[in-house]
Fold these 2 entries.
Entry 1:
Amino acid sequence: NAGVTQTPKFQVLKTGQSMTLQCAQDMNHNSMYWYRQDPGMGLRLIYYSASEGTTDKGEVPNGYNVSRLNKREFSLRLESAAPSQTSVYFCASSPNFGTGGYGYTFGSGTRLTVV
Amino acid sequence: KQEVTQIPAALSVPEGENLVLNCSFTDSAIYNLQWFRQDPGKGLTSLLLIQSSQREQTSGRLNASLDKSSGRSTLYIAASQPGDSATYLCAVLVGSQGNLIFGKGTKLSVKP
């Protein structure tokens, strides 16, 4: 099925461990995004990639790094996980950056717990 | 800074009722507004997209309106069903950053 695929779906980390969340889209979209969703806070943008080869910080980038590996793939890395990074992480994509004609498509999420 | 507010935070209705979910935003300089549905433990499913130049969009029993000048959108659900139970999220696209700004959602429960 066409869409946005995230792996893994669930992960438990110990404080200080590192991990990479993977995201791939097969819709030939130019722009990709990482959001986190926390109770009472809604979804907040961590990083985005307007096009292949570019990445920019969103609202809550501290503690994260990203890589736009190619047009299809956009990964999110936690270098030293902290309990405050316990959250549900969503990857999304859109045809182009900052235009109104098309909506975002979201993946099913990664549920991360840092203990 | 753009802020998106959704009222009510939670809503419980009997099956068959028509209902309205509200979304307001503080800055009218948006490119579009998107309504999503989120089931417990699941991802976001796009329901309707309204471009800034449009007034409304319809899909089946769903109708979304947009009044950009007043910073408001409503999602109308006709003849609600238990399968409509979910959290509904409103989000606006802020053009200068290409960032989708979300409200905190309305949790809908439709009782049989």
Entry 2:
Amino acid sequence: ELKVEQNPLFLSMQEGKNYTIYCNYSTTSDRLYWYRQDPGKSLESLFVLLSNGAVKQEGRLMASLDTKARLSTLHITAAVHDLSATYFCAVDGGGTSYGKLTFGQGTILTVHP
Amino acid sequence: KAGVTQTPRYLIKTRGQQVTLSCSPISGHRSVSWYQQTPGQGLQFLFEYFSETQRNKGNFPGRFSGRQFSNSRSEMNVSTLELGDSALYLCASRRTSLSSYNEQFFGPGTRLTVL
């Protein structure tokens, strides 16, 4: 059974600082997603990572995927208050479970002035 | 392009009742998946429908069921509601073509409260 673990689960950052959220998963997959969720809202797609070594960047966020290590990272550069939200990674089951996403627990990010 | 829509947005039911939630996918998307989000269990996959057929199912009891119509719209039904069914139910759609990322786009969700 595919398991996805994120850490940290809670992250309190000062504005301007850098930090990384880690996402480990237990079985082989070639498709990983990062989502953002604001309180009371739905999931907003941030990144789609499809292959080993994939790196995507959007603004202050950069995501990478290492399929051999079964690890993805979401790096935050020079955090700003607007980045405060919950971030989820999700791994596609692949094979007969293609399209079935298994989510991490989520990382609650709070950016302080 | 319109996003995924879900109705109703909020529902209050009592234990033992049943409920039907509706989801309209993005135009051209043929796959619809349902997820349950609770504070305790997080985000969990319920099932996926493609071309009116259930393609994948999560670990939920038979009280949870769904269907998909020929226009790709989907409904999920929960019978004999329990307090633990209180959750945000999210619907997601994807295109499923070979050339796409098959990224899942989520709707705004239906907040179900069971009293």
